[in-house]
Amino acid sequence: MHSRLLQHTTRWLFCLCLLALESTAAWAAAPALVTILQGDATLVRQTNRYALAEGVALADGDIVETAADAFMQIEFDDGSIVGITEKGRLLLKPQITAPKTTSAPPSFYLLEGWIKLAAAPKAPAELDFLTPAFEVVSPGATIVARVRPKAYELFVESGTARLFAHSSASGLKGNDFVSQAANADKPTIGANLGGEFLQKLPRQFRDQLPARAALFTGRIVAPRPIGPIDYADVSAWLHAEPGIRLALSKQWRPRAADRAFRAEVATNVAAHMEWDRVLNPKKYLPKPIPPRPKPAATARASTPNAAQNAAPATPIPSSQSTQSNPNNPSPSPTPEHPASSAN
């Protein structure tokens, strides 16, 4: 009896150890982790939405968004820290269908909102940061940026970075301030921090972003499911640049089975024509190959060739011809042709 109880207890403890090891391994394999959350933030993963919380592990391809008054901090497995706020929309490790300026794989894509990035100085690779208007590559800089429709501002707090915008590259250093208005052809780079930018700078960005990932070691927090995505939930991404939205449309195609989602997509299909193939698949089926015409048989002549098959005419003797034709008189006798005498 005691041996059986000991045996069951040992098995139970062994299973608990395996679960703990799996949880720790899953956390260690997570490319990013939510370490600070003030206010409401959501996660879009595949075709579903979730409510975020501190300790939630994020995966490649996840979209995180903050409410207007919320702040969220994400820590990556290489030690880099990112803070987003004020309706920030961030896509982790985007699978872009068309490469931008550099060949480096992007770490994340900010569609809009405020962001503060503290790149790890000893990361194995440079951090590549994309937006609709520019791309930043940095080996270990701290950068604050605000991305708006057709405009942006960027401040290099420390370190160095390379800015790629409108097919031009610029080297940036600490205290450089970059801005581009909606009607400007190219950005301006200076050493003076914009007054409006400084005035609207989120308070969480005025200090250094703290590292807190160690507080969640061995602990996984599951996000709370909200439900399938609606068109309004991902409308901003469906209207993004083609290189971003094409990859996202592939994972959201199953939602076309929902009548409301399908109707919204059809109404706005001109803004994302890649969905026309989903809505009207028959239109994109390969056209059937028309049958080849049979070669015409060589027509044979229905009547024999008159020139080749005509019978040769029988010559008429001159005597018969003369006798048969009374109008043709007999030839006069000549030395060559003497007249026959009567016997």
Q: Estimate what percentage of residues fall within beta strands.
A: 25-35%
Radius of gyration: 44 Å
Distance between the termini: 167 Å
The overall pLDDT, averaged over residues, is: 82
Shape: globular
How many domains make up the coordinates? 2
The CATH topology of the largest domain corresponds to Jelly Rolls
Fraction of residues in H or I helices: 10-25%
TL;DR?
This protein is an alpha+beta fold and 343 residues long. It has helices at residues 2-29, 195-200, 231-238, 242-252, 259-267, 276-279, 306-309, 318-324, and strands at residues 32-38, 41-45, 48-51, 57-58, 63-66, 71-76, 81-92, 108-118, 127-130, 135-138, 142-148, 151-158, 161-165, 168-172, 177-180, 188-190, 224-228. The protein is globular.
How would you characterize this protein structure?
The chain has two domains: 31-216, Jelly Rolls (Sandwich); 229-284, no CATH class. The chain has 343 residues and is α+β, with helices and mostly antiparallel strands. The model is unreliable at 8-28, 318-326 and 328-343 (pLDDT under 50). The N and C termini lie far apart (167 Å). It is built from eight helices and 17 strands. It has helices at residues 2-29, 195-200, 231-238, 242-252, 259-267, 276-279, 306-309, 318-324; strands at 32-38, 41-45, 48-51, 57-58, 63-66, 71-76, 81-92, 108-118, 127-130, 135-138, 142-148, 151-158, 161-165, 168-172, 177-180, 188-190, 224-228. It has a 17-stranded mixed sheet that branches. The longest helix has 28 residues, at 2-29.
